[in-house]
Design brief:
Catalyzes the NADPH-dependent reduction of N-acetyl-5-glutamyl phosphate to yield N-acetyl-L-glutamate 5-semialdehyde. It holds the Pfam family Semialdhyde_dh. Pathway: Amino-acid biosynthesis; L-arginine biosynthesis; N(2)-acetyl-L-ornithine from L-glutamate: step 3/4. It is found in: Cytoplasm. With 303 residues, the chain is an alpha/beta fold. The chain has two domains: 128 residues, NAD(P)-binding Rossmann-like Domain (Rossmann fold); 167 residues, 2-Layer Sandwich (Dihydrodipicolinate Reductase, domain 2). It is built from nine helices and 13 strands. The strands form two sheets. Strands 8-9-7-10-13-12-11 form a seven-stranded mixed sheet. β5, α4 and β6 form a beta-alpha-beta unit. α1 crosses α9, α4 packs across α9 and α5 runs parallel beside α7. The longest helix is centred in the C-terminal third of the chain and has 16 residues. The N and C termini lie close together (10 Å). The structure holds NADPH dihydro-nicotinamide-adenine-dinucleotide phosphate and N-acetyl-L-glutamyl 5-phosphate. The site of NADPH dihydro-nicotinamide-adenine-dinucleotide phosphate (NDP) has 27 residues, from α1, α3, α6 and α9.
Amino acid sequence: MATIFIDGEAGTTGLGIRERLVSVPGVVLKSLSGDRRKDPAARRDLMAEVDLVVLCLPDDAAKESVKLACDLGDRAPRILDASTAHRVAPNWVYGFPEMVPGHAEAVAKARQVANPGCYPTGAIALLRPLTDAGLLPPDHPVTVNAVSGYSGGGKAMIEAHERDGGPAFELYALGLAHKHVPELMKYAGLKRRPIFVPSVGHFRQGMLVSIPLHLDTLPGRPRAADLSAALVEHYAGSDLVSVVAPEADGKLEPEALNDTDRLELRVYANEVARHAVLVARLDNLGKGASGAAVQNIRLMLGL
Ligand SMILES: NC(=O)C1=CN([C@@H]2O[C@H](COP(=O)(O)OP(=O)(O)OC[C@H]3O[C@@H](n4cnc5c(N)ncnc54)[C@H](OP(=O)(O)O)[C@@H]3O)[C@@H](O)[C@H]2O)C=CC1
Ligand SMILES: CC(=O)N[C@@H](CCC(=O)OP(=O)(O)O)C(=O)O
């Protein structure tokens, strides 16, 4: 039996992980009672008893938890951090098992794994196979547009939308310094900082990440079919990630994969205009958070 402590289990991501682990054999979840769940000493003592601690906390609290775990020395558990705090940190493995061949094995062996952000999951899934194949140069000027359901903002945004109504649609992070840009750049293989324009809609969960490309600005002037072929080849055999032919009506809504851990990739094109748009669809709470966390937990614990 493998023992797991979810630090932050009452939050949006923590609850999603709990729900998914119920159906995974070989796991025992250890918890703290409500009044002790933010007590550092109680958290450290529980960490000493488990094989894996999963951090579903704001960044500062996640950093504090890592320190508590490290203070345990030889008794420190392995860590999976769902926050943004360690995604580009040295000595942490980025928890996107499909990213490059052999990466699932790297996650399986790691002591410290950083679970990806929901938006970077879609963008890296689309971009990394293309940069690795030489179809997209690392210094290409890339723009990433995205829309998320409001659960992406955690308990506070859920309450704002469900209690107060929330805006129907809103662009945000227009200071162009969203916290996801560093991991997006690093793991997509980009040397030029991409422009990232996220938005949130008045729906609970679901996400689209889209990346427009002028095909004539790419080396070798590829056709859109060359981009899809590279994605198909990269994700062949993946259980969770699939490359899907675009629907003829040219429409795509963000909620179709809700309550699944799947990620769909599409390449839309107008070859006459030499335009393409890469689109990823996922549940921000599924492959964008708790589903990815459980995928990594299974790898780390050999379940
Ligand atoms: N929601 C999403 O789609 C995604 C979220 N993430 C990341 O996962 C992490 C958790 O996010 P999310 O679940 O959305 O956030 P929530 O706000 O829903 O939950 C955070 C939880 O952490 C608890 N908490 C806060 N401070 C402490 C502390 N010092 N000690 C112990 N517990 C604490 C909160 O307690 P209380 O209940 O009292 O508020 C709450 O239960 C964040 O870093 C977020 O960025 C990653 C990918 C996607
Ligand atoms: C709609 C919304 O607010 N979304 C969050 C991202 C959610 C996510 O991926 O979480 P991490 O914070 O762990 O990276 C945001 O833009 O900050």
